[in-house]
Amino acid sequence: MNRIIFTAIALIVALSSCQSPKVSVSGRFVGSDADMVYLEYASALEQTIIDSVKLGEEGNFALKVENATVTPSLYYVIYNNERIPLLLMQGDNVKVSAAGNIVRNYKIEGSEESELLREFHQEYVSGVVKLRGIISKIAAGNLSEQEQKSLTEEYTKNYLEIKRKQMNFIVSHKENIAAVYALHQRLPNDSYLFNGDSDVVYYRTVAEAIESKYPESHYLPILRSQIARMTAQSSLLSQAKQVNFPEIKMPNMYGQEIALSSLSGKVILLHFWSAAIGNGNAVNADLKDIYNRYKEQGFEIYQVAIDTSKSTWINAIQEQQLPWISVSDMKGEASTSLGEYNVQRLPANFLIDREGNIVAKDITGDKLESEIKKLI
């Protein structure tokens, strides 16, 4: 008998702990002639209207989500061409109300994540509106120098204040999906959250906290992917050197990609030729003498073959025993490197100093050696 009672109690507890996959969103909007309210689901790739309803006589409405996720997902209530962001999960029963300008005045009940999102969103939108107002004044023209300076200072002050609050919100609520939303908001003309290089720190902070609180969140894989991309980009930029010449990156005869910029800090002779044409053989012989004299002092040759036959090119390298860096994209006259350097005939060369400046073009023999001596 006792076993039956305990089994029944356990069943009741289990059933009561199961969240309904449905979500209800109801409320009241007043102060506008618009009469339709829409509920939109926002995924990473698209937005989909999942429900709509006409306002009642007193502005009441009720919307629903049939199959909500077990962790918060982003939705929008759309009314009078304005959008209220919500973070909804299974079992939520949310109430939204507003009068007049709904984005600035709306209130939320029944969802902690949505309430946090409201806290950020309303202040952020107000800031964006203020910045756009200042931009409009500046763009209108007919301003004195002092007026323009004053507006610029006002813009900068407001911009930095909005950014400061955005960063504070992200760090203070890093374990909430509302912080994920805040991560992806950008002020007018901004590509980055903060300054690009340090953005990944904020993404990592949020991802680690979300993984602890919402390990099943479908935003986690997205965050991880963004972190991986930003880390790779940062690593690439840190390896890149500042140069004043167009970059070339082509494979050598073994298929290894070699970038021209990898030679930064050396005196470089960028040399274009064609093994198929054959008119560069004598030039190569002279270059070998110069190369052997100055290679130990920081001189390097980066030779680009404008060819389409790999066998012809490799045979030329081996027969002439060319000791420097030899590369080719095997595109012949279609090679983009010709356009980058405006090469009109072969052979052609460009002498680049240690700072990455092109200091001479198409020089050979004694003149080339004299210039290399100066640079070394």
Report what the structure shows.
The chain is α+β, with helices and mostly antiparallel strands. The protein folds into three domains: 15-109, Carboxypeptidase-like, regulatory domain (Immunoglobulin-like), CATH 2.60.40; 122-239, no CATH class; 249-375, Glutaredoxin. Helices cover 43% and strands 23% of the residues. The protein has helices at residues 2-17, 102-105, 112-140, 145-172, 177-183, 199-213, 219-239, 281-294, 310-320, 336-340, 365-375, and strands spanning 23-30, 36-42, 47-54, 60-65, 73-79, 82-88, 93-99, 107-109, 249-251, 257-259, 267-273, 299-305, 325-327, 348-352, 358-361. The strands form four sheets. It has a five-stranded mixed β-sheet with strand order 13-12-11-14-15, with helices on one face. A four-stranded mixed β-sheet has the order 4-1-7-8. Strands 3-2-5-6 form a four-stranded antiparallel β-sheet. β12, α9 (310-320) and β13 form a beta-alpha-beta unit. α4 runs antiparallel to α5 (177-183), α6 runs antiparallel to α7 and α8 packs parallel to α11. The radius of gyration is 32 Å and the shape is elongated. The termini are far apart.
